[in-house]
Design goal:
mainly alpha, de novo design (two linked rop proteins), 88% helix, 0% strand, elongated
Length: 129
């Protein structure tokens, strides 16, 4: 998946989360979860965009780690909506699945970046010897 495709996909997830939050009942518990889900779900794409502008490999890894955390947190809030009986599992399953895929791709990218970073350090050490 290209950088632009990933940006598009994370923005589509954010838009779906906005629609979900707007459709929730106006109860105290749903409002609290809605605010948390809105923050975490919309920050996935925002933090990915920030990672794309990272100043160093370490900065990119750090920002991608935030993408991972926000995605996982979003899944948590959606699970609470299901388990509390606020929203049906059938309604949220596709969105949870999509966020899970984003998290999995993010974890894979972080591993690749860390591997490259450690290989670069080894190469630098060899060149000094």
């Amino acid at each position: 998946m290209t950088e632009e495709e990933f940006k598009y996909r994370t923005k589509q997830i954010a838009l779906r989360i906005i629609k979900l939050v707007d459709s929730l009942p106006r109860t105290s518990s749903a409002n609290t979860i809605a605010k948390q889900l809105l923050r975490s779900g919309t920050s996935i794409g925002a933090n990915y965009r920030a990672a794309c502008r990272g100043k160093s490999p370490a900065d990119v890894i750090h920002k991608m780690s935030i993408v991972e955390e926000e995605g996982d947190e979003s899944i948590y809030w959606m699970e609470l909506l299901i388990e509390s009986g606020t929203v049906s599992e059938k309604k949220l399953s596709p969105l949870i699945s999509d966020v899970n895929e984003i998290v999995a791709m993010t974890v894979s990218s972080i591993k690749t970046l860390r591997k490259r970073q450690s290989q670069s350090k080894i190469q630098n050490l060899k060149s000094k010897i």
